Amino acid sequence: MPATALFLLFFALPVCHALYLSLRRVEVKGLGLGSGAREEVWAGLSNYTDALTDSELVAGALRVLGYGLIVVPTMLGLALVFALMLDADRVRGRSFTRLAIFLPYAVPGVIAALLWGFLYLPDISPFHHVLRELGLPEPDLLDGGPLYVALANIAVWGGTGFNMIVIYTALRAIPAEVYEAARLDGCSQLQIALRIKIPMVAPSLVLTFFFSVIATLQVFSEPTTLKPLTNSVPTTWSPLMKVYEDAFVRNDIHTAAATAVVIAAVTLVLSFGFLRIAGSRTRQGETR
Amino acid sequence: MTATLSAPLPPTPRAPRRIAALPTAALFLGALYCLLPVAWVLIAATKSGRELFSTFTFLPGTGFTENLADLSAYRDGVYWQWMGNSALYAGLGALLSTAVSALAGYALAVYRFRGREAVFNVLLTGVLMPPVILAVPQYLLLAEANLTDTHLSVLLPSILSPYGVYLARVYASAAVPKDVVEAGRTDGSGEWRIFRSLALPMMLPGLVTVFLFQFVAIWNNFLLPYIMLGDDEKFPVTLGLFTLLQQGASSPALYTLVITGALLAIVPLIVLFLVIQRFWSLDLLSGAVKS
User: Fold this and answer.
1) Does residue B33 sit within a domain?
2) A5-19, pLDDT tens digit by residue?
3) For the complex shown, is ipTM > 0.90?
């Protein structure tokens, strides 16, 4: 069929382009080749050893790990709870609350960080205002330990609604007979939630977990946005920020590229490892 | 076998004997948390620069029209240019991306050809590969083509979205019956015609989702324009506000502009959401886990 070839071309071309890009990236950093008037020599793996032994990168990775340990469980826990509540019987205001909780998804990460950033500023924040009125100590949300919470809060705010919708959709797909049977067996709402609903939406939990981890690995815009409001976010707070710093501020494309490859590799290894575990656990034979 | 792809129905109005207080309260608390910053920016945008720091946070101020005028006047209305750029990047980018996704998804769902699985696996890798990681090589590539710091440098990388293709494929295989394609062929229609007049209308609800998804993704994108663009007349609104905030750190008078700008930047998206949320088939987003 001529059309098949056309479609293939239409599709294969961008993919090849993507492949070309990916090869190119490896080449640029792996071989140390690049454009420019500077003389460039074979670098071997030295960019990688540099990147991997860079204390700033390690520190950034640890920061993101700590951040992820707060974000992922909180966000998914809230998403699951809200989804279960939405799905519970005799709940009021369902469509309003669903929409309200989903709404932050429409707010760009930069703007979300900006809004919360202002809400964290002691001079403006209502939280500080209330604490001051009550005579309680006011923690500086933009420094030290609270900074992690402050950043995590932005991610939780932006992501809970989306994950809630994914889980809620899966809940709605559970056939009613299952509940009938459970009720006849004398299960309470709570038991139904714990023993039936949660196990049956496990695949969507896996999926949302997976997306959240990937999103966490690439956190960039939120800490970058908060940077102007405080002195305690270094330019290399997250690994991706380090890539940016190396490539465009320090003009060291090669180290930046090596770091980017390391991040991509970690992401892919995590992803595929994760898919494999998830695949063997849920035994779904489709789409792969 | 096939997944239900209709939007979740609104709860059927049955006479409730009693409201489940705890879940309802939890949901309203969640809604409050999610609406808080939006409510804040709505109020803060009405405050003049002095009021912002002196009056209670949730007390409306008197400076909204003034703030609006200041924002519009800032550097000869560069803010509205940012909004226009965002609309261009997100609108055109999402449209092109949807078209490509539709074609590719349809081809992957309907045709059996050699290497289809390979193509699909590459695609899956693309979904897993965070697009932001690609930004640096993309920059290098576009720099070589002398395209950096142009509108194209933001638009072009947005067009191919592996996730969009993936969604389109899931949707095409659920919404376009094989029999219809077969019937079209027996009637002697060309493949292109089958796609355009038979498959495309069937895929339309799914494609609306793909479009909206892409629109939001491009509108929200920060890293790509941050890397690609140097000339602030080409900035999208996210990047523009970021630079404004950066300057605001040294002169807090700009804070009111940032706040007003942030409000105006989220209004279109929220309106868009409220208007078309009924067309969203959100369950498509979880298409990967259909049972």
Assistant:
1) no
2) 444 444 444 444 444
3) no
